[in-house]
Specification:
Blueprint (H helix, E strand, L loop, with lengths): L2 H6 L6 H13 L13 H11 L11 E5 L3 H20 L3 H9 L10 E8 L16 H19 L3 E5 L4 H7 L6 E10 L9 H4 L8 H4 L4
Antiparallel strand pairs: 1-2, 2-4, 3-4
Bound molecules: flavin mononucleotide.
Length: 219
């Protein structure tokens, strides 16, 4: 953490900030349509640095971010999406299948930045604290960092899309990463072509937002 931030002391997160934070959360979107304007590597690194302040089990910081610049590697990822998407389409029937076919589920062609995020499952950092009974906490930690990155990107006017319709083994080998790194997320980043308050899957009638009563329980 920069000294300047330590010296400033805890900020006053006032009601105005809370309202702006709510805006940020509500206007974050999974973006699949990007402008092709480049995003410089230092910008990506700045976002990744912020994301690396996310919480992690035992403070093991298991996230590994891989900027995918090489066109041959990107082509392998696009081909993997194409296969996985056809397989997914085949799993639906009737109207649902027709609707699935119309959904745009990636921005791999136009996004200026491709970023793969892995969990280093062999890390000894954190000395295993918090992972004895729930080893999956390692991957949960990486997901938290991805969400921080998503918000950080949106705060800078960038959009991000998460693509899971991929063959993880194919993507992992295409990126030639150390063994023991498990793929958590493949992300597209760039300036969005459109900005919406409602998710695309809501807008296209695939899945509405659930009411709070369906997701909040007391015991
Ligand atoms: C783990 C994860 C995987 C996802 N994979 C895909 C994907 O493969 N393709 C896609 O278009 N969106 C994907 N999304 C985005 C979701 O569809 C999106 O978050 C959801 O529809 C809600 O929209 P919103 O993010 O704009 O609020 C993924 C999101 C998450 C969290």
């Amino acid at each position: 953490m920069a000294n300047e931030e330590t010296e400033r002391g805890p900020p006053d997160f006032d009601a105005g900030f809370a309202a702006r934070f709510r805006d940020l959360v509500l206007w974050r979107r999974d973006v699949r349509r990007f402008r092709t304007d480049p995003v410089a590597e230092p910008v990506v690194k700045r976002l990744v640095e912020l994301a690396s302040h996310a919480p992690s089990v035992g403070h093991c910081q298991p996230w590994r971010f891989v900027l995918v610049g090489r066109e041959d590697r990107r082509a392998l990822v696009r081909a993997s999406f194409a296969r996985a998407n056809v397989a997914a389409l085949d799993g639906y029937q009737g109207e649902e299948k027709a609707l699935y076919a119309r959904l745009k589920l990636e921005g791999l062609d136009r996004a200026p930045v491709h970023l793969a995020v892995f969990a280093d499952e062999g890390t000894e950092d954190g000395a295993g604290l918090g992972r004895q009974t729930m080893p999956e906490a390692l991957k949960y930690s990486v997901v938290g960092a991805v969400h921080t990155l998503w918000l950080a990107a949106r705060a800078e006017g960038l959009g991000m899309g998460w693509i899971s319709i991929l063959e993880p083994d194919v993507v992992t080998s295409a990126l030639d990463v150390p063994s023991g790194w498990g793929l958590v997320a493949y992300l597209c980043l760039g300036y969005p072509e459109e900005k919406h308050l409602d998710p695309e899957l809501v807008r296209h009638g695939w899945q509405p937002r659930l009411p709070l009563d369906d997701i909040f329980f007391t015991r």
